[in-house]
Amino acid sequence: MKLLHSILAGIARDHLGIPTLETRRSDRLDFHDVAVWGVRDALNAAYGAGARSAGHRATELAAALEYVRATLKLRHLDEASDDEVEEALGMADAAMAGAPSVSLPSTAPGLALPARFDDYEISPCRRFEEPDSPGRFTFEPCEPREADVWTLYGHVTGEGVQAIGDFDTREHAEEIFARITGLRYTDDAIGGRR
């Protein structure tokens, strides 16, 4: 819990200019005017930190961070109470600790998200035109030297894999993987592909 608080305090300091998240019992010290782009950058940094460290718990953390965004309402940051901020931080703490679920208040509508991909794979594939449907193609994994395309797949535990996209080169597929995850793609990482 202390690590999460430290990460969030650093993000608040670096992106919002808020020196501490501790309650200091002074309006001048506890309420801050910040730009929406600072809030956006802070939320992106918090989400990125959570996604990198929480792995499969990132969905819960994303929901908690969306609640932070809804609570602070972006345009009325100076109206957010310390209790609301502490509640949101508590939800993020629970998500990071692996709580089975994060119960969101009814004030945070529309936060149901599909499960995030928990692993990725890039495979060389050959393209075959379907004989009964000219212009329609099927793709099958192949040896790298035979590849027509390189397919980036995303995996969700219990749901299988989905093709995210087909790319002309492996390098382009790896670039898209990096854009999605913020990580460099490697074939030999634990768990498969990160």
Order of helices and strands: HHHHHEEEEH
Strand order of the biggest β-sheet:
2-1-3-4
Structural class: alpha+beta
Report the helical percentage. 40-55%
The average pLDDT is 74
The main pleated sheet reads as:
4 strands, antiparallel
Spatial separation of the terminal alpha carbons: 26 Å
| Tally of contiguous helical segments | 6
Total beta strand runs: 4
Percentage of residues in DSSP E strands: 15-25%
Q: What form results from the Cα inertia axes? A: elongated
Uncertain spans: 73-77, 99-108, 189-194
**Multimer state:** single chain
Radius of gyration: 21 Å
Topology:
Layout: H1 2-16, H2 27-30, H3 36-54, H4 58-72, H5 82-96, E1 119-129, E2 137-141, E3 149-156, E4 160-167, H6 170-181
Antiparallel strand pairs: 1-2, 1-3, 3-4
Helix pairs in contact: 1-3, 3-4, 4-5
Report what the structure shows.
The protein is of the alpha+beta class and 194 residues long. A hairpin with a 7-residue loop joins β1 (119-129) and β2. The protein has six helices and four strands; from the N terminus they run αααααββββα. The protein has helices at 2-16, 27-30, 36-54, 58-72, 82-96, 170-181; strands at 119-129, 137-141, 149-156, 160-167. α1 (2-16) runs antiparallel to α3 (36-54), α3 (36-54) runs antiparallel to α4 (58-72) and α4 runs antiparallel to α5. The two termini are 26 Å apart. Helices cover 41% and strands 16% of the residues. The protein is elongated and about 75 Å long. Strands 2-1-3-4 form a four-stranded antiparallel β-sheet, covered by helices on one side.
